[in-house]
Amino acid sequence: MADKGKGEVSDFSRPQVESMFEQRLSEAFAALGMFNLLVVGKTGVGKSTLVNAMFGSDVAQTGIGEPVTKGLTHYVLPDSFLGLYDAEGFETGVAGDEILEGLRSLVSLNSTKPAEQHIHAVWYLVRWSDRRFEQAQMSFVNTLIELNLPVIIVLTQVPTKDGQIHPDAREFADFIDGLGLGVAGPAVITNALEDQFSSSPVYGLQALLNSTFAIVPLVAEKALTAAQIIDLGRKKKAVDAIIKQACTFAVGVGATPIPFADAALLIPNQITMIARITAAYGLPPSRSRAMSVAGSIVLTGGATMAGRYAVTGLLKFIPGGAIAGSAISATVAGTLTKAVGLAWSQVCELALGLDEKQRDQFWASGKVAEQFLVFFKQNPGTRTSLIRRVTKRA
Ligand SMILES: Nc1nc2c(ncn2[C@@H]2O[C@H](COP(=O)(O)OP(=O)(O)OP(=O)(O)O)[C@@H](O)[C@H]2O)c(=O)[nH]1
Ligand SMILES: [Mg+2]
Q: Using CA atoms, how far apart are residues 139 and 151, in angstroms rounded to an integer?
């Protein structure tokens, strides 16, 4: 590694960066923690459909299921920042009582475990077109509340027209709100799937997500942000904070100006940053091998080279700009790190927009590095500010 004293540095080799990235990725995903959601409601109410709409994949299909009790299964995504308790095929009455029995022992077992493993939110789904809320449903909800679980009532499959909720559904929601169930806030009105026939659009998912964020403990927020797929803004906010933190660190490194050749000093910080960004977007880490390869190409052949090239290359155009007397300043280190972070976020957002198969292909292809460079060069902070700062130094 770097030996600043001699002004000489050997870059990290690509395999080194690769394994470092793979390790940082798994640390970053572990640091997300877990969001555990319990979804209940009668069979056919739309539990699976709603979960798919909010989290993007059929957790129950792709996850590893573990029966908690008859009718209640705990699914964990292979990537394990989303845990789902699904009461599949559930009917109120006897079956409901069994589920509650299972929940009771689960909650009491959980109380001995870290908060990360608790149930953080319950969605209790009611199909609006049933137009009634039975006694059995009411006592089910009451028991959940007795167990100290934060419950959101969700009306499902609600049609809307021009943003107007079906008046009967509105009335039904008001009726449920009036029951004084002790749930967390008013019932949330949703439609998780566009109805082709009535062209009733998807509705209320953002409101449901907001209500969910309002009740989850801090320990589950990062995981929920990463797991949900409907609110990119929340992910971006988390990513911005990660980039800022990495820039602050880079500026600190650059406070003692680094010889150009020592640009590699900035690499470990950049690896940590892009690993955290990847995790914050909730990109499945099961693809971490391909991601690590892509990330290492970006950092060894892409960003670092580009950063160095930009600095040394630009110096040529500065009258009297002597490479020997120059160094990467704190601002340049910060600018470079920020540009790397922003370009990698754009890569991640591109990946998020792909379906699972395309995404796998994308990570495994050389396209990532190519695309990264495009974003990197487009970044308004990169070239101009480097020119300005290098000029000033010279
Ligand atoms: N239009 C529309 N259809 C929905 C919605 N939710 C569910 N459906 C349809 O209703 C049917 C049942 O939905 P599921 O999501 O499988 O219901 P579930 O609650 O998971 O059912 P079980 O797993 O049997 O307990 C499916 O045909 C869905 O396509 C919705 O919000 N809008
Ligand atoms: Mg289901």
A: 13
